[in-house]
């Protein structure tokens, strides 16, 4: 016997050989199946040809090999390391050649057939791989089955004739790099391995080789038409609809339609030969009409997210519970659409989208972004030699996913330039499935697509498109528009979501967008908390650009997701407190409001003094009504009053329990009395101290020392924040990026010059100038202190001088407290908020401890501010603001936060550092998109703000 080590297939542009044509996903067919997931034997080599194929033969002794969990990536199981690049290929670009150093994993699994496995006279069997990165060669019982590429696509082999009752040897050789890697340059970790299920499936004699469920809905007639095509004679039954027809035969009956808001599925069965395939049928029709994407006759507004598959320990090997968690989290946060960036997900995810209701843009496993480095020269999508591979990818996606009602748009791929290969894919898809529009962002002329799609456009440009003023190719001008990516959720942010949503809702052509992205791809790592690019010694990497999600790696929602939930809420509740009514608008596209119950609360100074149910009619989509509020409670105490009206789930749904808050609105009834201190005490010098009411100051420097029993250190003006990823901006951007500019100008190292300490009868005044070394611009900061017997007032007056060319990161005071744990406040909460991400901040009474105030961005940066704070108590101090302020408290300094690269770098010190900010610069989305809108700039302008401090029991 001779053994081969030929590896030509690795670099061959063909998609593979020996593989069966693609077919639909047969979820839960009653044909026998055997999962081959579990513990496999594993051996890693450095090159594709280091080992011959003798390991595939029967009787090979692999007992000395490691054990590896399949599905899984070997680099996350102690063999080699993950590597992250955004768009750069981590190998020389010389298509289709790949490096000699090509980590190659040999996987081996010996299995027996279950006792009841049908015998060979009853049909055959196929071996299915749902996902292998990036190229696999497969043997069963020593016989080579073939090899394939297309990492996130299914591949099957006929194996019936090779199976034995016991001791079957399945051998799979997986190469990290192959020609296929050129087509898989998505912005994510490079993670080789058999990362999705491996299954042996019996195929009973006469069973359908494939099936295509056509289930359309005629919204005028209220009927659905069902036709199930299959390559076999069979019957289709849907008991709830009284349907029992032959395959290929259409039938029209009255039905309830499927939509993401009302995901009505009918259970059916396709019976062919000895197999029963359960069907979950959703009747819906997607069409392009009046230049809009319509489903069941109505225009749809996508409130979407881009979802990569991610688990912090298992990478892209996701279990069902994790997939379900994603869908539940999305539904609970009012997300109604998913773009499967940038490859078809595990097929079970689409079952969940059908069941729980999400619109899906299903994207093909294709990206060649690295070719941009050479002006797209030699781009595989514009080279006919690669077209069979592209068509193979398109077919594997469409055939697998065609039966999901949730899938409403096909996407050719992402960032692959333009070329004939893309056109060929689009033509093939249009021919095979004319029932869904085709999307691709990379060709702004929309030659092959049915929707004009862009990413990260600034608001103004989106508005121009909404108004039809963007020009462009004629074909494009007639198409609907969505942002396939926007709101780059890297680190603290994104800002500006509400401003986008207003545009989407104002212009019909704008059919919404998909925030980039769902989850941070941090790798759990005890060295760092979560690792990102560079943490595994990669020679090329893109750092924490891989952590840009709305949920943290452990799927905890970030403040960005909480903001997004509020921004896209499907019910608008707007106040007209003067008229004693609210205007409720149903912003759903399909559902009326009958699933919701409404509740009101009347709050004074953040405390609810009365509450009750609010009867709201079951408004149809788009309808709106004035709903009277009750009379304000007669016995309400004086103070700042608010109405808060919430829309809650009246009963539990498949995705959230009864009482889950879907939308809310809050409106002020009366204004807050402004806090002030009548200056009934004057400053008194005594030795090295000046006392003023409850406070003492250093007589020489005017520095505050204590308020009553509470020691206070370092109170002074602060303009610096640990720059966010959005402050720093993406290096390729030509727009001004404030983070680097602030640092260049020295805003992180401001010096405070003491000009005067003035003791007057009613006030202590400290005059300073705050400016960085080497610059002539600065800020004059005057602190004016007044007091009565128990309270200390501070008014800070700031006047910029010189040539300020940049906005300020923040403007306020900071100080240290020796101890603080619990924090109580009245103002915006419960979570973090910044000027352009503040919609979700609800005015109320909140409490937290200092640790919980921190938002654990994977790369530490400015975080944790609470907005609109009227008063706060912490560490034995009470602070009232005039006007309201942003509150931040942390166990480390801003400088420490700024220097940290990972969460594990943040070590609590003895002091709690408190920032009371009059204002903060906006967040924007410049880590990939536009910066904050000008109205969220914190300009260096004269400002004055006041606080009243007093000691309270800690
Ligand atoms: C887009 C790209 C995404 C991701 C994003 C930045 O250009 O399509 O895959 O890289 O930018 O996070």
SSE map:
Blueprint (H helix, E strand, L loop, with lengths): L7 H4 L4 E2 L15 E3 L2 E10 L18 E5 L12 E3 L15 E11 L12 E6 L2 E2 L1 E6 L2 E7 L5 E4 L9 E8 L12 E3 L2 E2 L3 E6 L7 E8 L4 E8 L3 E5 L4 E4 L4 E4 L11 E7 L2 E7 L4 E4 L2 E4 L2 E2 L2 E5 L13 H13 L4 E3 L7 H10 L2 E5 L23 H15 L5 E5 L8 H13 L5 E2 L12 E4 L3 H8 L7 H4 L3 E6 L10 H10 L3 E6 L7 E3 L3 E3 L27 H9 L3 E6 L4 E6 L9 E9 L2 E8 L9 E5 L12 E9 L11 E10 L13 E3 L2 E4 L2 E4 L5 E4 L2 E9 L6 H4 L9 H8 L4 E10 L4 E9 L5 E10 L3 E11 L8 E8 L4 E8 L12 E8 L16 E9 L2 E14 L3 H6 L12 E9 L22 E9 L3
Parallel strand pairs: 26-27, 26-33, 27-28, 28-29, 29-30, 31-32, 32-33
Antiparallel strand pairs: 1-10, 2-15, 3-4, 3-6, 5-13, 6-12, 7-11, 7-15, 8-14, 9-10, 9-12, 16-17, 17-20, 18-19, 18-21, 21-22, 23-24, 24-25, 34-35, 36-37, 37-40, 38-39, 38-41, 41-42, 43-44, 44-45, 45-46, 46-47, 47-52, 48-49, 49-50, 50-51, 51-58, 52-57, 53-54, 53-55, 55-56, 56-57, 56-58
């Amino acid at each position: 016997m001779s053994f081969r080590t030929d590896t030509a297939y690795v670099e061959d542009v063909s998609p593979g050989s020996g593989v069966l044509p693609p077919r639909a996903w047969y979820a839960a067919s009653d044909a026998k199946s055997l999962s081959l997931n579990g513990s496999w034997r594993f051996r890693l080599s450095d090159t594709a040809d280091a080992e011959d194929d003798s390991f595939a033969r029967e009787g090979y002794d692999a007992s000395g090999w490691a054990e590896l969990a399949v599905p899984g990536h070997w680099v996350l199981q102690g063999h080699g390391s993950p590597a992250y690049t955004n768009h750069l290929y981590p190998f020389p670009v010389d298509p289709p050649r790949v490096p000699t150093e090509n980590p190659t994993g040999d996987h081996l699994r010996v299995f027996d057939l279950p006792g009841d496995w049908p015998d060979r006279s009853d049909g055959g069997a196929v071996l299915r791989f749902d996902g292998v990165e990036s190229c696999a060669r497969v043997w069963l019982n020593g016989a080579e089955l073939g090899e394939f590429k297309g990492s996130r696509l299914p591949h099957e082999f006929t194996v019936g004739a090779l199976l034995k009752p016991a001791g079957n040897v399945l051998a799979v050789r997986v190469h990290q790099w192959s020609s296929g890697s050129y087509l898989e340059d998505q912005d994510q970790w490079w993670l080789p391995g058999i990362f999705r299920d491996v299954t042996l499936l019996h195929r009973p004699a006469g069973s359908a080789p494939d099936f295509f469920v056509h289930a359309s809905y005629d919204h005028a007639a209220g009927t659905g038409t069902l036709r199930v095509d299959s390559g076999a004679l069979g019957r289709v039954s849907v008991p709830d609809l009284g349907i029992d027809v032959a395959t290929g035969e259409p039938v029209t009956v009255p039905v309830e339609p499927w939509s993401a808001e009302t995901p009505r599925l009918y259970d059916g069965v396709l019976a062919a030969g000895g197999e029963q395939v359960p069907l979950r049928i959703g009747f819906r029709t997607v069409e392009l009409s009046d230049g809009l994407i319509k489903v069941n006759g109505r225009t749809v507004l996508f409130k979407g997210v881009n979802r990569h598959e991610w688990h912090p320990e298992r990478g892209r090997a996701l279990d069902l519970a994790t997939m379900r968690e994603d869908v539940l989290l999305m539904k609970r946060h009012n997300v109604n659409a998913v773009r499967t960036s940038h490859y078809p997900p595990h097929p079970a995810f689409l079952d969940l989208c059908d069941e729980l209701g999400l619109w899906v843009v299903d994207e093909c496993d294709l990206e060649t972004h690295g070719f941009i480095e050479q002006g797209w020269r030699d781009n595989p999508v514009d080279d006919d030699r690669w077209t069979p591979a592209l068509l193979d990818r398109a077919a594997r996606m469409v055939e697998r996913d065609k039966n999901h009602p949730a899938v409403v748009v096909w996407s050719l791929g992402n960032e692959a330039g333009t070329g004939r290969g893309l056109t060929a894919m689009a033509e093939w898809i249009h021919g095979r499935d004319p029932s869904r529009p085709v999307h691709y962002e990379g060709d702004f002329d929309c030659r092959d697509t049915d929707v004009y799609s862009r990413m990260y456009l600034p608001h103004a440009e989106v508005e121009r498109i909404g108004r039809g003023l963007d020009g462009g190719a004629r074909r494009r001008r007639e198409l609907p528009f969505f942002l396939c990516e926007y709101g780059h959720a890297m680190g603290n942010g994104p800002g500006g979501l509400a401003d986008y949503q207003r545009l989407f809702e104002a212009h019909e052509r704008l059919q919404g967008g998909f925030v980039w992205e769902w989850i941070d791809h941090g790798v759990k790592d005890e060295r760092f908390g979560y690792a990102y690019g560079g943490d595994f010694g990669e020679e090329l990497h893109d750092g924490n650009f891989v952590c840009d999600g709305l949920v943290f790696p452990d799927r905890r929602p970030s403040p960005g997701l909480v903001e997004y939930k509020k921004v896209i809420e499907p019910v608008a509740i707007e106040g007209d407190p003067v008229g004693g009514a609210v205007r409720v608008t149903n912003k759903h596209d399909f559902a009326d409001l009958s699933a919701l119950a409404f509740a009101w609360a009347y709050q004074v100074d953040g405390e609810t003094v009365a509450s009750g149910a609010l009867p709201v009619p079951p408004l149809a989509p788009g309808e709106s009504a004035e709903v009277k509020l009750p009379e304000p409670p007669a016995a309400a105490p004086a103070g700042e009053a608010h109405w808060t009206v919430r829309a809650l789930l009246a009963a539990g749904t498949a995705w959230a329990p009864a009482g889950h808050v879907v939308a809310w609105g809050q409106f002020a009834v009366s204004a807050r009395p402004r806090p002030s201190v009548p200056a009934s005490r004057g400053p008194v010098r005594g030795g090295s101290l000046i006392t003023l009411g409850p406070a003492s100051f250093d007589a020489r420097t005017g520095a505050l020392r204590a308020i009553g029993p509470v020691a206070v250190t370092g109170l002074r003006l602060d303009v610096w924040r640990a720059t966010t990823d959005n402050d720093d901006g993406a290096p390729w951007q030509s727009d001004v990026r404030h983070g680097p500019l602030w640092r260049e100008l020295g805003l992180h190292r401001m010096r405070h010059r003491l000009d005067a300490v003035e003791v007057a009868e009613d006030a202590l005044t400290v005059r300073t100038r705050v400016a960085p070394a080497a610059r002539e611009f600065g800020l004059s900061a005057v602190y004016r202190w007044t007091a009565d017997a128990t309270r200390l007032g501070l008014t800070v007056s700031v006047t910029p001088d010189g040539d300020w060319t940049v906005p300020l990161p923040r403007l306020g005071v900071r100080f240290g407290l020796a101890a603080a744990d619990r924090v109580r406040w009245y103002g915006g909460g419960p979570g973090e908020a910044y000027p352009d991400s503040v919609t979700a901040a609800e005015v109320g009474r909140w409490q937290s401890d200092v640790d919980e105030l921190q938002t654990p961005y994977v790369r530490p940066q400015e975080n944790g501010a609470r907005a609109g704070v009227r008063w706060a108590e912490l560490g034995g101090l009470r602070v009232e603001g005039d006007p309201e302020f942003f509150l931040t408290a942390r166990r480390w300094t801003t400088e420490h936060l700024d220097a940290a690269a990972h969460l594990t770098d943040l070590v609590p010190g003895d002091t709690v550092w408190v920032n009371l900010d009059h204002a903060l610069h906006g967040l924007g989305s410049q880590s990939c998109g536009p910066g904050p809108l000008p109205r969220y700039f914190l300009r260096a302008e004269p400002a004055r703000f006041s606080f009243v401090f007093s000691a309270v029991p800690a």
